Amino acid sequence: MSDSILVSVTEGLARVTFNRPNRLNAMDFEMGARWRDVARAVTTDPSVGAIVLDAAGPAFCAGGDVIAMSTSGAAGDAVTDAAHVIHEGIRTFVDSHIPMVAVVQGAVAGGGLGLMLSADYIVAAEDAKFVSRYANIGLTPDLGVSTLLPAAIGERRALQLLLQDRTLTAVEALEWGLIAEVAPDPAARADEIAAFWLAGATGAYGQAKRLVRTGAGRNFEANLADEAATIGAAFDTDQAKARVAAFAKASAR
Predict the structure, then answer these.
(1) By three-state DSSP, how is residue 55 classified?
(2) Is the predicted pLDDT of residue 74 greater than 80, yes or no?
(3) When comparing pLDDT for 150 and 138, which is higher?
(4) 176 and 241: one domain?
(5) Which residues of 91-115 are buried (b: 16+ CB within 10 A; e: fewer)?
(6) What CATH number is attached to the domain comprising 159?
(7) How many domains does the chain have?
(8) Domain extent for 218
(9) How far apart are CA 152 and CA 147, in angstroms?
(10) For the chain, what is the total number of helices (H) and then of strands (E)?
(11) Which domain of life is it from (predicted)?
(12) pLDDT tens for residues 181-225?
């Protein structure tokens, strides 16, 4: 089994860790396939109620490993195929019913932005830096960046990152809405967030995440139909029945 991405599942929490620190966790062909396979496995594991995405070493992810790709002898069609594989992993996490929190530190560059934005909640270290750099080496956005980045920060700001050689600090990224929090110990904070999901109405948090993330790509009518079906299904769960009854009892006092 590849060790480019590590996975562990404990008491409902899946931890997915990028593990190529010597390459700043840049994703090569093998790691891309591993990412897709991990996404499939984790999101179909019935024991998993929350996911933490983190990374070993000083950087979260420097994007695609263009050095490895360029020295492999691969042509553009192989890069396209690899992008499709990685995109499947991103889409699987985004469309799933399991909420994911990302822990980011150091460099988040190029496709690393898209991998980070596959998470629903992002906690950054104070030293985190965010940059595009695609055009600097003559390449174009991939790994969901052209969709997920403007969805997070708006089209105009996304274009500022993509069309200029601009680096955002953690504080600037927070102001732009690219991340949710800056924390002195982002790993501990992410664990708190995941524990909150697991201790609460886990299924409801997961379905709320799914409705928002999936709804961005559908028309309003389809979203309303999904909302109606989802809240009806939730209402019949034992978890909801117990919580609604407790709420009604408290309100009657």
Answers:
(1) strand
(2) no
(3) 150
(4) no
(5) ebbbebbbbbbbbbbbbbbbbbbbb
(6) 3.90.226.10
(7) 2
(8) 202-251
(9) 9
(10) 11, 9
(11) Bacteria
(12) 999 999 999 999 999 999 999 999 999 999 999 998 899 999 999
